[in-house]
């Protein structure tokens, strides 16, 4: 089968053996897959958790059909239309744990379905389970113009947030954030953004920040969060190291939590997928929660898809059809 593999000379489409499902695994005939920021690093040979390096089939989210079941796989049958996340997505066939997938709604095509699994799982966990958003609260999403950021704003709005703020350093994308749940769009590269947030919250700050940027905004986030507020760190697009105002953190008694899928067990990931199904799946099926697809590429043009992502001018998801 064809797969997009990182090798000694970089990533390229190669011929490899089709995998066989074992235990709780499901063999998926991939029809479309979504690009994510982590894929760009792995395409350059960087590790993502335990994954990466020479011989790695790249990609982490997909939509397709069940082709074969492992002996212990439950909840799906051959022919079911499904979507999910896991390694080795950029291929004609991939393996997935039976607890790490969703049934694709009948009103979605494969391209639309492939845009959702990572955003739904990541941001339901960050906004609801860990972030504990409550009706009437104020929420700030740092890095809101990414696919997961757009989903975070929509989930916050769905759960009753009274004020949703999204950040983007790109003026064109900032103007579009209101279509995906934002009441206020800010430029996190402008030092005055904290004042904008405080003004919008009557000087108190937001109840919750979901931070995909970190780096230089880390201490600014503390100043923009209310006393006894929460910051959930899900990324590091702004860098892995920065100054941190420990005194302000203590004074505002902020609960600062880091989350990532890289160190979670399969049992923890299954639980996250179950929570999405129990809590917000109706909104997925009704299309209240959806993402814009910026551009679709054929599998043969996957390198162009990555070039499009690295140009950093897109809003929403970049999808590759297989």
TrEMBL record:
The keyword NAD belongs to this UniProt entry's keyword annotation: no
Keyword Transcription: no
Keywords in alphabetical order: NADP
Membrane-spanning segments: none
GO molecular function annotations of the record: oxidoreductase activity
Annotated ranges, domain Enoyl reductase (ER): 7-320
Name the record gives this protein: Zinc-binding dehydrogenase
Organism name: Bradyrhizobium hipponense
């Amino acid at each position: 089968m064809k797969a997009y593999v990182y090798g000694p000379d970089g990533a390229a489409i190669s011929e490899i053996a089709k995998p066989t499902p074992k235990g709780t695994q499901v063999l998926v005939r991939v029809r479309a897959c979504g690009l994510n920021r982590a894929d760009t690093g792995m395409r350059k040979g960087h590790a993502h958790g335990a994954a990466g390096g020479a011989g790695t089939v790249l990609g982490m989210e997909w939509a397709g059909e069940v082709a074969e079941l492992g002996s212990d796989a439950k909840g799906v049958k051959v022919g079911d239309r499904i979507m999910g996340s896991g390694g080795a997505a950029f291929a004609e066939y991939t393996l997935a744990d039976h607890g790490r997938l969703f049934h694709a709604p009948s009103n979605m095509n494969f391209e639309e379905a492939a845009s959702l699994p990572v955003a739904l799982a990541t941001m339901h966990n960050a906004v609801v389970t860990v972030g504990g958003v409550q009706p009437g609260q104020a929420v700030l999403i740092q890095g809101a113009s990414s696919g997961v950021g757009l989903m975070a704003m929509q989930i916050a709005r769905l759960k009753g947030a009274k004020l949703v703020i999204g950040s983007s350093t790109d003026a064109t994308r900032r103007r579009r954030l209101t279509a995906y749940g934002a009441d206020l769009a800010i430029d996190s590269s402008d030092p005055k953004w904290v004042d904008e947030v405080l003004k919008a919250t009557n000087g108190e700050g937001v109840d919750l920040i979901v931070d995909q940027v970190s780096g230089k905004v880390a201490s600014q986030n503390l100043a923009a969060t209310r006393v006894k507020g929460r910051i959930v760190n899900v990324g590091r697009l702004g860098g892995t190291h920065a100054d941190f105002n420990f005194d302000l953190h203590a004074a505002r008694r902020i609960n600062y939590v880091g989350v990532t899928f890289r160190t979670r067990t399969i049992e923890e990931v299954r639980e996250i997928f179950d929570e999405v199904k129990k809590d917000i799946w109706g909104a997925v099926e009704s299309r209240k929660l959806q993402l814009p697809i910026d551009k679709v590429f054929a599998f043969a043009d996957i390198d162009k898809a990555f070039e499009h992502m690295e140009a950093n001018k897109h809003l929403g998801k970049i999808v590759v059809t297989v």
